Amino acid sequence: MTSSDDQAQQLCFTARALAQTHPLSSAAYNYRRRFTTEEVLRQPNKDFVDWASNCFLVGYCLRRAEENSSGISLGISVDEPELLRKLAGEVAASISSGRDDFFLREPSVMLTALDRLISTELDKRWETAQEHASQEEWALFEEYLAWSLLHGYCVRVTETRGGD
Hints:
About 75% of the residues lie in helices and about 0% in strands. By secondary structure, the protein is mostly helical. Helix 2 runs antiparallel to helix 3 (about 45-70) and helix 4 (about 80-95) packs across helix 6 (about 135-160).
């Protein structure tokens, strides 16, 4: 039997590999493109936008990896970018407040995988970001990347589950 940590590690590996294949649905692709365009206007550091966009992709791919490892094939039920934004925000708020019925695998495995991916993304950026950010700005940056990764995960949840 595989431990929760091993399962989370495998999901992370699969998500990172999947991210290399551009696995976004058409609606998720358009949503990510719109998200990136809006963030470029809002965010003073363009590298941060690129990193957030990558986190979005990795989070989306984590959900895809979770689907694959669960043997579940889910069809798209929401394909409108604005509705994706709204519903994904609701799912993210629910997960952040402790609701765990969105997960297809054990919640402990999925929360470990999400935490591990967020930590990895932050670790990859630390050296470069510290040159541009104060300690206070780094804390905001951590939240920004964590939100982006969770949001990508929630966009995939939303597009396959709809508004339930």
